[in-house]
């Protein structure tokens, strides 16, 4: 009886720990959703649309409009220097500045610098929610519609003086469903296309410029942004694209001069955001937040203001006057004669006040100020803005007090018909102060949901810790490294600088860990081979790790400093392609060996054909993306290949299909218990196929990192794996996943998301496919180490089997190995979610909450849901299970 009880107790513990582990992994996404619902709410908005009956009070007069039509041209990612410097392709636009027919500005774009929230700011004058950065990534989402919100697009429609037309980025159609009378949208995320995406806009121009039935024309060009994502701001395609856009400016401006029905048309050219030195955007660097903004019309010459153009380079990208993007809404309202949108926080750009008399200028500014005070009343409550018996106790009350003083002066002078000219400056200053205050005020967080989400995450962490400690018979001290990593990581999340430079933590932790393993192996005397070989292997591992660390300089503060890619590979393409070819030859060798169970001619021909297809795709891709780094020898290889002339989509599909077929063949062999390789398990063959897939999805300069990662894997597997506990194997895999992510160029900024390989083999936008390909290209290193890590766990399993045969371990230890590995990774995943949630909650009023901590939350979501649950748990579990089946 006692024997039965003692044997069933471990079984019950095993079952309970498994259930807790499953519960932990289910609670992680639940906690993320709950916390996100509280952390990213939409701000309350004033309903309805403004009209002049509400806007004009106390006998104020409606100020006459200066224009009756609007052409609004957005050039996606039009950074200010692209228009204003000597290297610009916008020569005609610069000539208009010198002639006084164009007013140039730098429009400050607040983070997140992606299209949808920026268009919301431009059209409403308000500050969008950070959650719009997520909405921006979903082409099919329509929940972010502005159909019921007050915008200058809606106000122009309500004027009833003409139709609204739109051509370009279909984000406008999602934001304004049913508003445009004539429209044709283009897919904004298909970044492989530089040409057709813009030609599809321009081809409508000649006919539309001849028609007189519209009062609003929106054009949104995407090609320049696509070039930035693919090749950066210094891509050889960039200047020709700028010249193309400048020629369109010439075409439209010429029509304004020659077509009678366009004589009173305002032409605005702007960027929705800029781009950083890598060509990406989404964060808050100077390049990303500084798009150009130019107002053009022959009527602007009446103001007689001319501008110097071009200007010298400015590292801060601040050219001419810097205004806020939200200033566009009230400025267009004044110039085109409609009331300021209800939720606007912007102020009329002062340079345009010269069109009106001093009395009219003050009327416009007062209408703008009264509208902003209504927004403040909705945000804080009318009673909260009222002054008590004592002095004002809040910034909101001070703001209301200053407005009250200006309003009383305005009303008094208006009744007496007195001079108002000296009120222009104080009103303009008040508008800037209120704009700064209201734009920076804290969001309406749902603290209950935030704390509830964090509580659920803490429960998930507790469950995972219990599961990890009970999965194997190792002492709890074996988990000390994991807990040290988690605690240190959690502390780091409360400092914005550490979040921005997180890669240093993983680099130093990985190096220290490898050094520790090397020293400990010698000290314990557990190695079964030469100590000299052990020292050499450990040294080699540390050297390779150091090289990988230096491959891509990442982070925020030192992103532009020299690294191996910038200093050696881009400046020496011969070396780059030597390493790339070496990587593909290594993959070829692994595939030939991996299919050695087949006839030699078949394995060699199959491996050669697939690797050649993948290599030539990468050459053709790079020739389109960055032709300057493709050497003449590599070009000749492509010319000699029989696939010359095949388009990139077909090439990529051929590679994907080939990898899929060979993966299926390998799986059939493994499941049937047969070896497809004579000398190694099928898991190595699958690793080689996945390596080829990840090379296809990686930037050309990063492909050699896969070869170096394999060298790390081999050095870690044989010299250092011996004697490691299961928890320590998991720590090694965890460290390599994170350090490789940053080594491949990843950061915690939205702007570092590389979209260039997200469309390989894709002819039409599909959110699921593009999302998967984009994830693979950005997490290539981490995905590779999931597979390599699974092999390490399988190797540890084989080691335990041998030890069991020697009666040193029990069978339960071997069977629970994968559960222990998943539990250890779940501990860190749940712990990282808890830490980042806590940081976001505590620092929700921090200056960098939307530029540092919120993007980090999105990244921890990607790590937890996609990498941990999708890759480590599901794909890794399948991979490990296949290895177990094959090894029986």
From TrEMBL:
Question: From its record, what is one biological process in GO terms?
Answer: GPI anchor biosynthetic process
Give start and end of each GPI ethanolamine phosphate transferase 2 C-terminal domain: 442-883
Gene Ontology CC terms, in alphabetical order: endoplasmic reticulum membrane
Q: Which Pfam families match?
A: Phosphodiest (PF01663), PIGO_PIGG (PF19316)
Q: Can the keyword Endoplasmic reticulum be found in this entry's annotation?
A: yes
Q: Which UniProt keywords apply?
A: Endoplasmic reticulum, Glycoprotein, GPI-anchor biosynthesis, Membrane, Transferase, Transmembrane, Transmembrane helix
Bilayer topology annotation: Multi-pass membrane protein
What pathway is it annotated to?
A: Glycolipid biosynthesis; glycosylphosphatidylinositol-anchor biosynthesis
Its annotated compartments are:
Endoplasmic reticulum membrane
- Domain of life according to the entry: Eukaryota
Alphabetized GO MF terms: CP2 mannose-ethanolamine phosphotransferase activity
Location (main, coarse) = endoplasmic reticulum
Q: What does this protein do?
A: Ethanolamine phosphate transferase involved in glycosylphosphatidylinositol-anchor biosynthesis. Transfers ethanolamine phosphate to the GPI second mannose.
Name of protein? GPI ethanolamine phosphate transferase 2
Which organism encodes this protein?
Answer: Cladorrhinum samala
Task: Give the classification, highest ranks.
Answer: Eukaryota, Fungi, Dikarya, Ascomycota, Pezizomycotina
